[in-house]
């Protein structure tokens, strides 16, 4: 049994809420803002990683940074299920469970960090990496948050969990709920998510409802369902999700031998992931595990850009919801719940917010694919955004950059096939990028079943 030593703090009015007193919608009763998990004992730690003189005599709650780094490496050799999880391997930094050894895990995390050599060469960048969260068990970054929040739901005795989703959260929730022998309820915007994601929720056994509305509408309906039924809310307003989703920050730091890269670029939808990663990096610095934080940049699709607009016109102080529309359906969100947290992370780390067009997203996705990696459209906004940041000098060639790829390419094969068939984008959308796009498009060839026919194609390809 682990000592549970966390509390929740409102990001609006800073009120402190004890875990047992939290509302079902995870919002502050006083001001309606979101909450975040904090660990009071950590305040005894200075940025150098040692308790301040005044507090040095108190109980030593966290091991020193060197010991933690050693412990987390050692666990890579362990056979225990929680040690094999890339989330629970770092459990000292998310002490939210009483019984972490009973966490619901599918061996999430421990995802690869790839070098993107071709994209880097094109951009003249020395160090470009992709942290591929699409290599998680259900194919997206959501698994890291789900293991944390769903384990919390189980410890609290819930039988039912629920979420509104653009597809990936529902896939992850359904899988983890089934592993825990719990039941799950999924609300999806009808016709606006990919078939692969819908199929996952069905396969993993969720009660799956498609509603005749968008994601933001599903969120509104779910809020009422949660008020009226004994179900545990697993959307990313649930602050425990973010505790799991911050662990890729630790993995990145570990891969870089605790020398933090200069930039991290993250797609923005409901804006929890950028918030979570920011929290992870800031906590690492606070605990003395690292000496700097990367500049965290959020990239949105032009058609779903409320944070971009908020930072441009209102300095991130307020947000105007938009009617969201983008083919990157995962981030088709007009009223993001975690905008305040994300705006704060951008400001605290010195990062940026960018928006990219549909054609830029499709092209960037094909470019990542050409590296033999592949990702879903929402993930490709990161490379498209990076190009813009480099073009106007906000990122220098000598700086190191990590793109956070959030979903696997097979999450949305229809998008990929439409791109290569040339049916994805309208002509006016490709303006200015026609050459780059046509260079990336691959036709599927239908041939007679003869070696001669195939050899003719091969010869033409060799000549090209
Ligand atoms: N990338 C992918 C593949 C996603 O599925 C999402 C969000 C995001 C990026 C954006 O992350 O919301 O934390 O800013 N998908 C949610 C879902 C909304 O329901 O699956 P965010």
Question: Secondary-structure blueprint of this entry?
Answer:
Blueprint: E1 7-10, E2 16-17, E3 35-38, H1 65-74, H2 81-84, E4 113-115, H3 117-123, E5 127-132, H4 142-155, E6 160-164, H5 168-179, E7 183-189, H6 195-203, E8 207-211, H7 215-228, E9 231-233, H8 239-245, H9 247-255, E10 263-267, H10 272-286, E11 295-301, H11 306-314, H12 339-349, E12 353-356, H13 358-369, H14 377-391, E13 400-405, H15 413-421, H16 434-440, H17 451-463
The structure holds ligand F0G.
Features:
alpha/beta, 6-stranded mixed β-sheet, 4-stranded parallel β-sheet, 17 helices, globular, binds ligand F0G
How would you describe the overall organization of this protein?
The protein is an alpha/beta fold. Helix content is about 40%, strand content about 15%. Strand 6, helix 5 and strand 7 (about 185-190) form a beta-alpha-beta unit. Mean pLDDT is about 95; it is low at about 45-60. The structure holds ligand F0G. Ligand F0G binds near residues 142, 165, 267, 273 and 378.
User: Radius of gyration, rounded?
Assistant: 22 Å
- Percentage beta strand: 5-15%
The helix-strand sequence is EEEHHEHEHEHEHEHEHHEHEHHEHHEHHH
Total count of helical runs of at least 4 residues: 17
Distance between the termini: 64 Å
Order of strands in the sheet with most strands: 4-5-13-10-11-12
Small molecules bound: ligand F0G
Class from helix and strand fractions: alpha/beta
Whole-number mean pLDDT: 94
List how many beta strands DSSP finds. 13
Helix content: 25-40%
Poorly predicted regions: 46-60
* Biggest beta sheet summary: 6 strands, mixed
